[in-house]
Structures are given as structure tokens and as C-alpha cells.
Amino acid sequence: MKSKLHFLVLIQCGLILSALLIRNGRLLLLAIPFLVYLIVGFIQAPEEIKLVADRTIDRTHANALELIKISILIKNQGITLVNLHLNDALYPSMELVEGLPHKALTLTAGETVEINYVFRAERGVYHWKTINACASDPFGLFDLQSELPAPGKVVVLPAPMRIYPKKLKPRFTLHTAGPIAARLAGSGTDFWSIREYRSGDPLRRINWRKTARHRRKNFTNEYEREEIADFGLILDTRQLSNEEEMEAALFEYSVSAIASLSENFLREGNRVSLLILGKSIASVFPGYGKKQSHMILRSLAQVKLGDNMPLRSLEYFPVRLFPARSLIVIFSTVDSDDLATYARLRASGYDVLLISPDPVDYAAQSLPPTNMNILASRAARVERIIRLKRLMKLGIMVIDWQVDKPLEPLINNAARPFVHRRGMQ
Amino acid sequence: MKNTHLIPLILYACLMASVGTLGAGYLLAGYWWMIPLFFLLALFWGFTIKHPVLWISSSLLSTHVILAAIGIAAGFSQFFMIASCICALASWDLTMFDQRMDGNAARNTNASLGKRHLQSLVWATAIGLILVLFGYHLNLQLPFGVIVLLVLIALGCLIYGFSFILRKST
């Protein structure tokens, strides 16, 4: 409250100078209460702050918009602080649900105080290093600021989206038992073929009907082998237009969808890798299981829309990240310069599924339905359809995703050509 | 009664006392035509309590001090003028305090803070009043040279004191 102090000093000076100028000693009497006020404040001003803070967060990971509780315990290890203001930082993307992150109080020596608040937050990584403490005299004239160490961190993961793409089965599989039918004879559950009995085949697999028809020959049932597959996920975080709000909303849908897909793929035992393209390139190398899921979700929690960088940088695309013949799922709104990159991906032998959140449809919904807007939307839609059709001609499966509609049926529909291709193998 | 309820009461009382005593001083001197100005002043103070902004309440306090200084210079009742200034200072302080406390959660901890604040304010105003009364009854006849010397010493002390205070505040 420096302005308060400056104002009082100004009044003092004004009164004293006026008294001197008009040579009226009685005017000085008016200055006395202000002077005493200043002196009383000055005497009670704190000289040091000896506080210890301890922050407790009820969880280290939470899904977006889940409630998170923070408790900060502050103990005064010094003298009594008459006018203490404690203030914990709130991020703009945090919404306070209960309690307040600041408190004003008198804290006597040895006393403890607790700040509790509950908030929900959007996807991201939130970390605190300190809590701000401002001690002053009772009138708030002489402040003493201090940053009390109180570290804490919480990762808010993307909001889950319920997607179970059962029909999305890549052409090529890895030779490890898993959930995806491999179009090869093996130890699965689905019938595959019948062959002549070989020594060592279990008796329960013998096809007795066929054996009965042939003399001195036994036949065994073969089952389709089930294996895991390689999935590569690419998230395009480039900001392609000036419509920041719209792009951010679409981007959040993409992040949620990619998080759900990765969780599903990993839950089924597949190998999944992630590449985030935008201002910079971030990647999670292929891996399995919960640890991989955690790493991917953590990367997705931190991801933000960035400046425009052409997707051509995929030219230098890390081969170790996406093993050959893996199925790559790309989330991108698609720019006009991206065609060559997609062509290069196809030429490298990858199966590519492009899921493109539709910015035209999203923008059209928020615009007033004037003739101009309707025409503009139609023109943009035509341009987008042409662009997507060009991609489809390259052999890329394209999903034009209007984000208000569920993604799962769209993926299952788009996955059919993969199934057909698998049959042609 | 809790301090949270006590502070607004004291604030309103100080406000009425400050405007009332200032008005009384001017009315006793025969300035009837200034009554609307004091009503206006009271209204503005009321507005400041509802919407506390530092510069508005500071402007009102400045107006108060200027009017009191004019009153003293013009030879009106010094008791009313000084009492008015002390009450205005208390109103201004409590308005600022109320603004600073606005939005704080735990009222029980605020109560202790409010109590300490009120105690300090009472001490400051009481000591101020006592010193004013002491100064009011103190009549010294000093030669001109001594007065000049005292003025120079006072100015030096003031400059040093204020610069020290401002340095400490930063």
C-alpha cells in the first residue's frame, strides 16, 4: 500500500508548508494526527517474516474438470504478524469451486493457519513453487513481501472420450500374442483351416468328422493366430488460422480423442508411439502397457497449439518411432501444403488414417446465418472436400469429423477398407 | 458483537462525526450557504464506503483537510476542525481496511485482524488527540531567530524522516 503511505506523506508536507507559508502555528495541529498515525504504523511494521509453508495436493494426476483439493499449512516461527496476507497463485485455466486461495489474518508466534481450496482445471501441468506472504503494520502502510517455498505439482490429463474402435485392425501385426487376428494359423480362438495331423498336436484339436471320412489319416483344426500390432499416433498442434478460439476448441477434441485411442490400443496390448508436431517436435517412443499410457497422457497434458510449422518436417521423420508397416493415426485439420507429406508417408509403406476435426462445420455453427456467411461456409466446405478427396486418392483413410458427433462409428466405418486389404494379403 | 459488524458501525459513526463537526464549525461561523456542500461530502463518503476506491476516498480526505485548514486559518472553532480531521482520517482508514478485507474467506481470522486494526486506530487517534490538545494549550513566545532555527530543524527532520519512511516502504 505504497500509494496510501505516499498520500499521507503528501498531506503532511502540505499542512506543514501551508503553516509555514501563512505563518499560522495552529495549522500544524492538523498535521499531528496524521503524523501519529504514520508513527504508530511505523512502530508496528514487521521486520522479518519467518513462516514455513507446506502444500498438500490430494492427487498428483487428475482428469480434466475433476475436483482437486489443495491444502497449505503455514506456521509462524517468528514474531506475531499483525496484518498478514497470504496469497496462492491461481492459473487462468483453473476454476475455483470451494474456498479461497488467499487469506488475511493476524498470526501470532507459533500459530498455524491452513488455506484450503478446491478447484477444477483444464488439461495441463500445474506447478507451484511458492506462496506469497505479505506482512505489514495494522494500517497497511509498510509492507514486507516474502515468497514461502511450498512446492506442488498436479498433472491434469485430457478429458476421456469413450471410443472403442473394434474394427480398426492394421494390416501387419507383430509376432506376439495379442487381440488382433493375424490372418495366420496359430493358437487363437477363431477357426482358420484344417490340416493333416502332425505328431504333437493336442487330441482335442483333432477334427473327428474329417478324420472319419479318410482312412489312416488324421486331421487337425487350425485356429487364427491373434497378435498385437504397431500403432503410431500423430497429433498436429500447428495453429493454421487466426481463429484461435475455434482452433483451440477443436484441438481439445483431438487431444481427448487421441488420449482415448492410445489408452484403448495399449489396454489391448498393442505397441503405441506418439509424435506431437507443432512449434516443436515431441515424441514418445514405441512401448507397451500402463507406463507407456502414462507417458503418452502426460505428453498430451502438456501439449499446446503452436505456431505454424509445415508438416513437411515429417520428411525427417524418426523411423525408430514408427516401425515399418505400422498403422499411423493422424489428428490434423489439414493444411493445403500437407499433401506431399501424406504422399511420402504412404510411399514409406505406412497405413494412414487421418482424423480431421472439421473447422468449417464448427465455425459455421457459431456464425449468424446471413447470406454472406452461408456462401462463405459453402466455399470453405468445397475447398476442404477437394483437399480431403485428394488425400483419399493417395490411399489415406480420411475421417471428416464433425466434433459434435461420436467418433467411434466413424472410425469403424473408415476401418473397413483396412479389413478388405487384409483379406487380399 | 463481532468485529466484522463493529467496523462498519464505527466507520459510519466516524463519517457522520467528521462531516457533522466540520459542518458545525462552519455553521457556527455563519456560513449557512455551505450546508449543501457538506451534504454532498457526506453523500460522497457514503458512496466511497459502498465502492471503495483509494483515489476517491483520498480525494475526500484531502477535501476534508483543506476545508479544515481553511477553517482554522479563518479562525473558526479549532476543536471542531481538528475533531473533524481525526474522524475523517479514521473513516478513510476504515474504508481502506474494508476494501482490503473484501473477499477474504475466513471471517473468524479476520475478526482478530479487525480487532488489532481497531486497537491500533484507537491508539493512533487517541495519542493524536492528546498531542493536539497539548499543543493547543501550549503558548510559547520565541524570538524570531529561534523560530527560524526551529523551522529549519523541523524541515530537516521532516525531509529526513519522510525519506527514511519512503525508503523503508520500498
Describe this structure in words.
The complex is a heterodimer of chains A (425) and B (170). Chain A has 425 residues and is an alpha/beta fold. Helices cover 32% and strands 35% of the residues of chain A. Chain A has 10 helices and 17 strands. In chain A, the strands form 4 sheets. A 6-stranded mixed sheet of chain A has the order 14-13-12-15-16-17, with helices on both faces. Chain A has a 5-stranded mixed sheet with strand order 2-9-8-4-6. In chain A, strands 1-3-7-5 form a 4-stranded antiparallel sheet, with no helix packed on it. With 170 residues, chain B is mostly helical. Chain B folds into 2 domains: 3-139, no CATH class; 142-170. Chain B is 85% helix and 0% strand. In chain B, α1 (3-28) runs parallel beside α3 (54-74), α1 packs antiparallel against α4 (78-101) and α3 runs antiparallel to α4. The longest helix of chain B has 31 residues, at 107-137. In chain B, 32% of the residues are buried. The model of chain B has no long low-confidence stretch (mean pLDDT 81). Classes of the chains: A alpha/beta (425), B mainly alpha (170). Chains A and B meet through α1, α2 and β6 of A and α3, α4, α5 and α6 of B.
